[in-house]
Amino acid sequence: MISMVEFFRNLPRKKCSKCGNDIVEKADCYVNLCDNCDHPAL
Ligand SMILES: [Zn+2]
């Protein structure tokens, strides 16, 4: 059995498709943009 923590830890670190910054895990993880590039104002 693998714990949920280990499962998420084994996931590859996501990178923003725009600026290449690491993406902080959030609910809408299908978005490949960091918080900066995902801002509606941009
Ligand atoms: Zn970005």
Tell me the number of strands.
Answer: 0
Q: What profile does the largest beta sheet have?
A: none
- Tell me, what's the shape? elongated
Helix fraction, binned, reads 10-25%
> What is the number of domains?
1
Bound ligands? zinc ion
Low-confidence stretches: none
Please tag this protein with its features.
42 residues, mainly alpha, 1 helix, elongated, binds zinc ion
Give the secondary structure arrangement, pairings included:
Blueprint: H1 4-10
Bound molecules: zinc ion (ZN).
Describe the structure.
With 42 residues, the chain is mainly alpha-helical. It has one domain (1-42). Helices cover 17% and strands 0% of the residues. It contains one helix and no strands. The chain starts with a helix and ends in a 32-residue tail after the last helix. It binds zinc ion (ZN). Zinc ion binds next to loops.
Concise structural overview:
This protein is mainly alpha-helical and 42 residues long.
